[in-house]
Design goal:
single chain; mainly alpha; two-stranded antiparallel ribbon
Length: about 650
């Protein structure tokens, strides 16, 4: 708490301006060393081009060309009020004469706005160091003091961009940021600040700060600064810097390896993946820092301006951890989110953040996010009737041209009654494959004509009782015969190996640990209602729902323990619904526990075994001959070896009935 108040105090002291209301650091490297460090026009005075100025200075056509051009194009602060800071007319005429032949040889032109007769004749600058600021020749000096003492460079040169002439003066100003840097809101904050206040010395000149590094630091820390009632200092506006030295900034490296960690950021806790790795692409080293910034998008996500906004934001702030490395964000996903949400942001006076510019991302990982070759993007199904099917990704527009799932759900409301009435075993899946079609790798998958005809036959009678006919937009002759979804082809008939692959692809893992093939076989046995040895589309849906429920229980109640497993006492509570006696529980515990308790895979296996055994018990009870005497006994008594001696089998043998 004391650190928080210190942080608050430090942020309140952040400098708003360093050299007046309209002065900014002089960032153009070709103008350094001329005796001034700030300018009101860091990107060039009106009517002048920095690029043209740089070309002119680089010719070195006159010893004073830099002094003239820089003081005109990026003038010293205060030059508008004082002629002492403007170049003299004679200096301009001398440089122009010196450079005439050199400019002609290089096919360069003298700036049209740079007229020598408009400059003062006296009380003005005659050369590089003839203004009121006289500085000795710059030389490299060792960095002293703790701040900026552990960087990759050990020497600096002053004055810096803000005009500090000693390290003591620079460190005093930098000290106001010390607590912000300690918070760890961005790994780029300290290197950037040091590049401004204690710059690296390169051949006696300061290395200019990097604009990209500034943007990453600002993106990671500005929201924190704003929350305290302060603002990013105007004197450190990123657009005033260049990218000349940005090769020194570490880029986002998807090959870096670190420890995966459970996602704790509220906005990103219900993603298809559960683990992230830091630092992220914006430099956040902790989930607390990432969560503080991404929280500003909460309202935008809630209004559902784009189904791709939340997946994109989370891929930036809490990237998926893949073998200890972050999965890069997808440029196409960013473009879809931005195109749908930016206009809404602009209406309320907000801009799409520079740190999330889509052109900064690549398309290498886009296939993983459901982006197809044609640019289509899969999105999570939000239509209630179509949630929990064997697929969970759709695409808009759908097969009927509805541009959003919100529009689609309004148009399909009538089918809810038919689904609830169970007019056809096919109707729910068929209707959903039209209104929320299955999306795979950004491509839509259409239902087959035969599938439509079968669903229609099963529902026409019920629809007639409502006084309505089969909808014109669902005429079966409009659907394809081949390369489509049909129950006849049974695309979802999965064996144990296929079930395991589907669960892994669906993100049903915990901290990168997936279920085992042994557990997948148990799940197959439990969900295989017709005993075919594989699962159809409905059984797959039930399987995914069951696994999701068990996984949620494990994650919410047990996963945070160290090591992540269920201890004996909590395991007893988790199995209360089965009313196990102590001996039965002991057998289960000893057979399945690992170091520290029972892990995610074993928890899924134990629950599934008990569900299978209970179902088999009830099924066998119903098949007893009607003319025999049946005592009143329960599943709890079956699970008890010595309760009333109803089941004369050892508990271990009873549990081994389930052989996979």
């Amino acid at each position: 708490m004391s650190r928080f108040f210190l942080l608050l105090w430090g942020l309140l002291l952040l400098p708003r301006q360093a050299h007046g209301a309209n002065c900014y650091p002089l960032t153009s490297s070709f103008c350094h060393g001329l005796g001034y460090a700030t300018t009101p026009h860091p990107t060039g005075a009106p009517g002048y081009s920095l690029q043209q100025a740089a070309q002119l200075v680089e010719t070195a056509c006159s010893p004073n060309v830099a002094a003239l051009v820089c003081r005109v194009v990026v003038p010293e602060c205060g030059s508008e009020e004082s002629s002492q800071k403007k170049p003299c007319r004679a200096l301009c005429q001398k440089v122009k004469a010196d450079c005439e032949s050199a400019l002609e040889a290089r096919r360069l032109s003298w700036p049209a706005r740079l007229r020598c007769d408009a400059l003062p004749e006296s009380n003005c600058v005659q050369g590089p160091h003839t203004s009121g600021l006289h500085l000795p020749p710059a030389s490299c000096q060792p960095i002293t003091g703790p701040l900026c003492g552990d960087l990759s460079y050990t020497e600096t040169v002053l004055p810096n961009l803000l005009g500090h002439t000693t390290q003591e003066e620079a460190r005093a100003a930098l000290q106001t940021f010390a607590l912000v840097m300690q918070v760890g809101c961005s790994t780029q904050l300290m290197p950037f600040m040091c590049s401004v206040y204690i710059p690296k010395c390169v051949s006696g000149s300061p290395r200019p700060p990097c604009r990209t590094q500034c943007e990453q630091a600002r993106s990671g820390c500005e929201s924190l600064i704003n929350r305290i009632g302060s603002a990013w200092p105007e004197v450190l506006r990123c657009e005033t810097f260049t990218t000349e030295s940005c090769e020194q900034v570490p880029a986002f490296d998807s090959t870096q390896t670190s420890a995966c960690q459970r996602i704790t950021v509220p906005l990103c806790r219900d993603l298809p993946y559960a683990d992230t790795v830091l630092p992220n692409i914006l430099g956040h080293e902790t989930q607390d820092a990432a969560g503080l910034e991404v929280d500003q998008f909460q309202t935008l996500v809630k209004v559902e301006c784009s189904p791709h906004l939340k997946p994109f934001l989370c891929s930036v702030y809490t990237p998926e951890c893949v073998s200890g490395s972050p999965r890069p964000p997808c440029r196409t996903l960013c473009e879809h989110a931005r195109s749908n949400c930016e206009s809404l942001m602009n209406k309320f006076g907000f801009q799409w953040p520079d740190s999330l510019k889509c052109e900064a991302f690549s398309t290498e990982s886009c296939e993983h996010y459901g982006v197809g070759r044609s640019g289509g993007v899969c999105e999570p199904i939000t239509i209630p009737m179509c949630q929990g099917l064997a697929y969970n990704q759709t695409i808009t527009p759908n097969l009927l041209g509805h541009t959003s799932q919100r529009e689609a759900v309004m148009r399909m409301s009538f089918f809810n009654a038919m689904v609830q009435s169970m007019c056809s075993v096919d109707i729910r899946l068929f209707v959903c494959t039209v209104y929320a079609p299955r999306c795979s790798a950004g491509e839509v998958q259409r239902p087959c004509r035969s599938f439509c005809e079968r669903a229609k036959r099963g529902c026409e009678g019920l629809m007639g009782s409502f006084g309505v006919s089969w909808p014109d937009e669902l005429q079966c002759n409009s659907f394809p015969v081949d390369n489509c979804i049909s129950e006849d082809k049974k695309p979802e008939m999965l064996y144990a190996e296929g079930i395991l692959a589907k669960l892994i692809a669906g993100g049903y893992s915990v901290r990168g640990k997936t279920l085992s093939l042994k557990t997948a076989r148990l799940l197959l046995t439990y969900m295989d209602a017709d005993k075919t040895g594989y699962l159809d589309v409905v059984e797959v849906f039930k399987l995914e729902h069951y696994v999701a429920v068990v996984r949620r229980e494990y994650v919410e109640n047990y996963e945070k323990s160290n090591p992540p497993s269920i201890p004996l006492g909590q395991m007893k509570k988790a199995l209360r619904e089965f009313e196990l006696d102590d001996e039965t529980f002991t057998v289960l515990w000893n057979e399945n526990r690992g170091e520290g308790g029972i892990d995610y895979d074993e928890f899924m296996a134990v629950l599934t075994k008990l569900h299978i055994l209970r179902e088999r018990f009830h099924a066998n009870l119903l098949r007893l001959p009607c003319d025999c005497q049946v005592a009143s006994f329960s599943f709890k008594q079956v699970m008890s070896q010595d309760r009333d001696k109803l089941i004369p089998l050892p508990v271990a043998h009873l549990l081994s009935i389930i052989r996979m």
